[in-house]
Amino acid sequence: MSVDALKSALPGYAKDTKLNLGSLTSTSQLTDQQLWGTVLACAFATRSAVVLRELAEDAADHLSAEAFEAAKGAASIMAMNNVYYRATHLIGDDAYATLPAKLRMSIIGRPGVDKLDFELWCLAVSAVNGCGRCLESHEKVLRDGGLSRELIQEALRLAAVVNATAATLDAEAVLAPAGV
């Protein structure tokens, strides 16, 4: 499978997801590395085996080995950070923001690829994982680095569509054996 195979697997009720997946991956204003790194990192974040496997296949055709690993690294570090920072924010006690996280995050400082590309992937994964604090932080770094709101929005749309693809296909896989 690939993007095309995932589109074919989406049921009729997910026509919008199918169309968005196709258009976002074929008419992107992001660089190839930004686009496919975002797709891969978000696929990783969805935890959907089929979506990750199929999108990783396409991403491997567009990313260097270093960028492929960095996109996975963005998903991994944000899986940790999104839980921690979302939790400390949701507790509602501002004192937690003054405490050191004491979590290793060296990949953020040395991702092995362009720093803004890595930040974009972290932002997109934070959207999938629903961490407002991380979204704000990564968006600020991206804007300060010169990335336009339109490109940031495109990464957020990719996150939304990859997530919808995973949610739909995983739900259909559960329902299929029951004949529902």
CATH topology name: AhpD-like
Helical stretch count?
10
Terminus-to-terminus distance: 24 Å
Residue share in helix: over 70%
Tell me the CATH architecture: Up-down Bundle
SS content category: mainly alpha
**So, the CATH homologous superfamily?**
AhpD-like
Order of helices and strands: HHHHHHHHHH
Q: In one word, what is the shape?
A: globular
Reported for the largest beta sheet, the result is:
none
Averaged pLDDT: 95
Task: Return Rg in Å.
Answer: 17 Å
Quick one: how many beta strands? 0
List key phrases describing it:
mainly alpha; 180 residues; globular; AhpD-like; 77% helix
Question: What report would you give on this structure?
Answer:
It is a single chain. By secondary structure, the protein is mainly α. The protein has one domain: AhpD-like (Up-down Bundle), CATH 1.20.1290. Helix content is 77%, strand content 0%. The protein contains 10 helices and no strands. The chain has helices at residues 3-9, 15-26, 32-46, 49-62, 65-91, 95-98, 106-109, 115-129, 132-144, 149-175. Helix 2 (15-26) packs across helix 10 and helix 5 (65-91) crosses helix 8. The longest helix is centred in the middle third of the chain and has 27 residues, at 65-91. It is globular. It starts with a helix and ends in a 5-residue tail after the last helix. The mean pLDDT is 95. Keywords: Antioxidant, Disulfide bond, Oxidoreductase, Peroxidase, Redox-active center. Belongs to the AhpD family. One of its GO terms (biological process) is cell redox homeostasis.
